[in-house]
Description:
By secondary structure, the protein is mainly alpha-helical. The chain is built from eight helices and four strands; from the N terminus they run ββαββααααααα. The chain has two domains: 2-50, no CATH class; 69-174, Topoisomerase I, Chain A, domain 4. It is 59% helix and 9% strand. A two-stranded antiparallel ribbon has the order 1-2. The longest helix has 20 residues, at 69-88. The N and C termini lie far apart (51 Å). The model has no long low-confidence stretch (mean pLDDT 82).
Amino acid sequence: MSFRFHGKSGQEHEIELLDAKVAKIVKRLQHLPGEALFEYRSGAGDYSPVDSGDVNEYLREIAGQDFTAKDFRTWHGSACALRELMKLGPPPNETAAKRNIVAVVKLTAGLLGNRPATCRNYYIHPSIIQGYSDGSLFERLPRLHSNRHNRELRPEEASLLTFIGSASNQEQRIA
């Protein structure tokens, strides 16, 4: 399946998805009346499009906390940036650190379909950028963690949890 749509800030997205189960579901949804691909039928039989408010309401309901789709984008962006910075290794100097951060932010922005400035400001946890700049990323996180304890997390996600937790603990000690 191919999805092509305009996202935030008019960014055009083109996504290829290879999942037979999802393809079957989407094919059934295409037969619903109306122009919007994703709609639902109310108890009264009326069709309504699914919008971001519906998605965020659902996420809050199932999480039992104030989660939104942005939280998932931030998690994914932060994990991607961490993985790429870890691949690059410690920078030899401040100039290289800045150059590497710019390259990783651009790459992550491309993956998320955002502009680099938006990605850096909203979708990459600031402690990752700071940790790479000052070298503490490699002091507190010598390598990407394996998934020995939680098979539902990718290595970069397990490392992200560890790093952000250690950054939070360090901030509490300073305060």
